[in-house]
Amino acid sequence: MTLAEKLVEELNCETVFTIHLGGLDIPILESVVVTWIVMGVLILLAIFLTTGLRTQNISKKQAFAELVYEKLTGIVGGTLGEEGKAYTGYLTTVLLFIGLSNVIGLFGFKSPTKDLNVTAALAIMSIVLIEAAGIYHKGAKKWLHSFIEPVPIVTPFNILDVFTRPLSLCMRLFGNVLGAFVIMELLKIVVPPVIPAVFSLYFDIFDGLLQAYVFVFLTSLYLKEAIE
Amino acid sequence: MINISFWNILWTVFNLLILFIAFKHFFFKPIANIIAKRQEEANEVYGKAEAKENEANELAKQYEEKLASAETEKKQIISDARKSADGQYQQIVADAKANAKDIRDKAIADAEGEKKEIIASAKKEIADMVVNATTKVVGSKTGAEVDSELFNEFLGKAGE
């Protein structure tokens, strides 16, 4: 098998199984299955961390859970500001999801974020949330009016923004994860075995978490802009 | 990789929503609740402590006031007592003086009266004795009548 074939095989997202629902064939792809694993890990961790919460004499586990909670909501809420506090929960969830999805490749799974469809879904949800929050906070009239701000001539660009923002979010995340993966695969083939481990620290862990942060940071920035 | 699959997008959206709801339920809510509860408890404790402190301050103030009023009351009572004791003392002394004077005056008057009485009775006795003696003398010797007259005259002068 050539290098190219190997890479393509690694990159391809296989259909694991298909659900037949009436006349519909619903394919379940590998990325969805890995997403379920990521979700399962996160939810189990959350349940484990939040059992036996007390107000006094807290356990180390609870202290850690509270630290994680405070830090995460602090990071996300810091950009969102007071008005966007209600969206902290969703964005923190996304941060955790993308973060774990990006590093789960280390455990032998195919990162769900290496599938364009997953990043596209994330970006679509972000833009839907942003526009919906804009309409909710400003009212439909003001929201529409925001398209001709600051001067009517920028209206086409403002409209374009609605599409380019999720596209850039989606592509940035996908491209970074894909790029990091390709580089890591090449390094593993070219200079095994120690050097890939060093680079893996950057490409798999640091870049993965950084991209998760960038995605959430940009979404919260847009969100803040939309509700102001 | 880059095949767009509608179902996959739908699944991911669905998964994300599930994950969000699960996280809200299992992670954010319990921790936010427990932090809020702890805050509440802390506020309660602080509130109680503050109330206690205020109460203690109030009590201390009251006691101070009471002490101060007791001090002035004490002074008042002492000065009152002093005044009344002084008055009583003066009264007693004056009474005693007056009493003593009365007693002395009375004693003097009594002594004077007695003296006079004694003198009077003595005078009378002496006169009687003299009269008796004179009568006896006059009965036996008539030559002495002149002398008796002279003697009476002398007594009368001396009795004055």
What does this molecule look like?
- The complex is a heterodimer of chains A (228) and B (160).
- By secondary structure, chain A is mostly helical.
- Chain A has one domain.
- Chain A has helices at residues 3-11, 30-49, 60-80, 88-103, 116-138, 140-145, 155-190, 194-227, and strands spanning 15-21, 24-29.
- Chain A has a two-stranded antiparallel ribbon with strand order 1-2.
- The model of chain A has no long low-confidence stretch (mean pLDDT 85).
- Chain B is an all-alpha fold.
- Chain B has one domain (6-119).
- Chain B has 2 helices and no strands.
- Chain B has helices at 6-140, 145-159.
- The mean pLDDT of chain B is 86.
- The A-B interface holds A 11-13, 26-29, 31-32, 35-36, 39, 42-43, 46-47, 49-50, 53-56, 62, 65-66, 69, 73, 89-90, 92-94, 96-97, 112, 114-118, 120-122, 124-125, 178 and B 1-5, 7-13, 15-16, 18-20, 22-24, 26-28, 30-32, 34-35, 37-38, 41.
Question: What's the topology here?
Answer:
The complex is a heterodimer of chains A (228) and B (160).
Chain A: H1 3-11, E1 15-21, E2 24-29, H2 30-49, H3 60-80, H4 88-103, H5 116-138, H6 140-145, H7 155-190, H8 194-227
Antiparallel strand pairs in A: 1-2
Helix pairs in contact in A: 2-4, 3-4, 3-8, 4-8, 5-7, 5-8, 7-8
Chain B: H1 6-140, H2 145-159
Helix pairs in contact in B: 1-2
